[in-house]
Amino acid sequence: MAASVAFMKPPAAYTTNDTFSSSSPVSTNHHETTDSSSFSKSRFEAYNRLQSAVVAFGEKLPIPEIVALGGQSDGKSSLLEALLGFRFNVREVEMGTRRPLILQMVHDPTALDPRCRFQEEDSEEYGRPIVLSAEIADTIKSRTEALLKQTKTAVSSKPIVMRAEYAHCPNLTIIDTPGFVLKAKKGEPESTPEEILSMVISLASPPNRILLFLQQSSVEWCSSLWLDAIRNIDPTFRRTLIVVSKFDNRLKEFTERWEVDRYLSASGYLGEKTHPFFVALPKERTEVSNDEFRKQISQVDSDVLRHLKENVKGGYDEETYKSHIGFGRLRDYLESELQKKYKEATPATLALLEQRCSEVTAQLNILDSKIQATSDVAHLRRSSMSFASSICNHVGALLDGAADPDPEQWGKTTEEEKSECGMGSWPGVISNIKPPNSTMRLYGGAAFERVMHEFRLAAYSVECPTVSRQKVES
Questions:
Q1: Which of 6, 141, 168, 375 makes an SS bond possible with 85, Cβ 3.0 to 4.6 Å?
Q2: Which CATH number fits the domain that encloses residue 134?
Q3: In a domain, 98, yes or no
Q4: pLDDT in tens, the chain (474 residues)
Q5: In what helix (H) or strand (E) does residue 242 lie, and over which residues does it extend?
């Protein structure tokens, strides 16, 4: 952790005037621009390394992150491929249905071909570079299947971490979550949709995460299946970026300017301060080169804007909405927003890391003194007898749920208990079950009584099927 603090420290020339977005005003001083870009890249790399350590060691740090949310067919996977700048058949492996993927994109001008590496399971290290697209997809699929077989579950919240270095991708990190589904696939438990929803809510709830919610343009705001779920997580959409995908499917419905402007404003549904992005991407899934794929993306952006100008009477309000139309605009905004969040969070993150380093150093000093004491056989014997006596004295009290040791340190809340045992929700129960004292940290008998109370609440919430009088009599 000490190493993390070292590489997170900002350079001496760090100022509040750093710029990140490619759409921001360009500095007239070339040296300033180069320094700003260097600071931005260093900060991005530091957060990527910190994120990898967090995943490997199960830590919880308030790192700014973008979390992609949406239904299974709302275009999340296509958007990720567009951001990467190359395809790897991500939709065919259905990575978004079973296990989250942390995608660390690194802009490297020297990487003319994409280089992808996967972080080893339960380790901070990355494996060998992977170049073939098919091998990337196979790795995601095999890792997902292996973990689900090991845990005997249909979905898992344990993420796969993939680092992609490419000359044509932005500096951006996105957590792709399992897509919302209404019905389990054949062979999956019926509770799979509820487990996915519960897991996605858990991933999206931390306030340090930016929510990237995708919904295809054919869905009306008033009938959106998943917008209410996002609203429950972020009621005012303060940290939610809404993206209307497959926007080209909607274009043919617009003939007048007022129709376009009304749709683009999302008036009455999202609030005055919420402005969605409208994106269309290539539909053809034929195998093309990476250069051709990026050209297709750019061409679709141009076609959408041309259609709105030439095929809609009066065009549209360009001054208000042009900055939110097209994949290129969304990409620039995401990169700029994440860099801004990184910069804002740096002081607090450094302070937290330094605190953790101090705590770990103190613990290591205590352990070191204990190790030194083991050379004294008499002292070791006395310590062993004292420890055994202490355990015997506390076993009974612990079973009764005593407050010694400190429950705040050793106890668990209801959500923490569920997370550690891999349980998303009670089978067959849709409503959110919260027993009394669910936010308190308990263990032993008190924790057992609470989970039994939670079981009773879950059982009572299940609606029993109607049984006819004839069936009872027979």
A1: 168
A2: 3.40.50.300
A3: yes
A4: 434 333 333 333 333 333 333 333 333 344 444 445 666 667 777 777 776 776 666 666 777 888 999 888 888 888 988 998 888 765 444 444 588 888 888 888 888 888 898 988 877 788 888 877 778 888 888 888 888 888 888 888 888 888 888 888 888 888 888 888 888 877 778 888 888 888 888 888 888 888 999 999 988 888 888 888 898 899 888 899 999 999 999 998 899 999 999 899 887 778 777 889 999 999 877 778 889 999 999 999 999 999 999 999 999 999 999 999 999 999 999 888 888 888 887 787 788 888 888 988 999 998 888 787 777 777 778 888 888 888 887 776 666 656 566 777 778 888 888 878 777 778 777 777 888 888 888 888 888 888 998 888 888 888 777 777 777 776
A5: strand 240-245
Q: Looking at the structure, do residues 79 and 163 belong to the same domain, yes or no?
A: yes
Range of the domain at 428: 405-474
Report, in angstroms and rounded to the nearest whole number, the Rg of the chain calculated over CA atoms. 26
Judge whether 317 lies within some domain: yes
- Three-class secondary structure of residue 87 per DSSP: coil
How far is Cα 123 from Cα 52, in angstroms, rounded to an integer?
8
Nearest in space to 140 (alpha carbons), one of 101, 187, 181: 101
Count CA within 13 A, CB hemisphere, residue 305. Answer: 16
Report yes or no: 371 and 383 within 8 Å, Cβ to Cβ.
Answer: no
Token pair 């899934």: residue: 285
Residue 154 lies inside a defined structural domain of this protein = yes
